[in-house]
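Researcher: Re-running this chain for the archive, since the previous output was lost when a drive failed. Same request as before.
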Amino acid sequence: MRHNDRNIHSVGEFITELRNTAQNGLVWFRGQTDARWPLLPNIARPIEGYPDGLMNQELPAIKRFKQNADAFLARVPRDDWEWIFLMQHHRGLTRLLDWSESPLVALYFALGGTDVEANAVVWCLDPMELNRKSGHRRRFDRDVLAFGIDEALNTYLPDRVGDDQGAELLPVAAIGPRNSTRMIAQSGTFTIMHRQRMAVEDVPNHDHVWRLVIPAAQKANLRAELRLLGFNEFLLFPELETLALHTREMFR
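Model: Regenerated structure tokens:
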């Protein structure tokens, strides 16, 4: 990894380590409640009976989702990417992995688990370096690949990935339309995996990622500090249900 793991005991330390490791260049962040988990999208995570996840079930899952989704949609997605984003938004099976341009958003999600025994982690990613390793060099600094704009990403579409004649490509980082209040609030970005089941941190030579680790014993302390800073569920999920829950909490 680009930097050794840094243990974080407070929000102040978190900001200090961001200044030490992420001050220069474009950096994305992802919070995970267990530091042992790899950076794999949900379709590639092991489940009982499927140690490599459900990688070969992506196209059938998309077809079933499309079959039943129309009745719930005010606007039907215009292309395959929009369908995939919609599925990701509703926790469907995709090769997308969520990241954020906000380190505090990532820290909030890292602290959201109920497992008090596990260390949490905020992963830091240099998306430009990941994409260079994947063969995507851009003319301009910070010109990140974009779904629906850069044709190079079409090779990651589900029907292309399943083409037996296609090459196996490395994961890439890309931005997509922030077409929901949740995506805007969370400053959402993505990585996407190709047909090869490969965690983002396993892309050689591993220097595009590094980690800020929150020891299990410090989780409660950092949660309290984030609350003082006004970070709560409604801020990141601006919907009526979370508004009602947030309002109830205000009067406790």
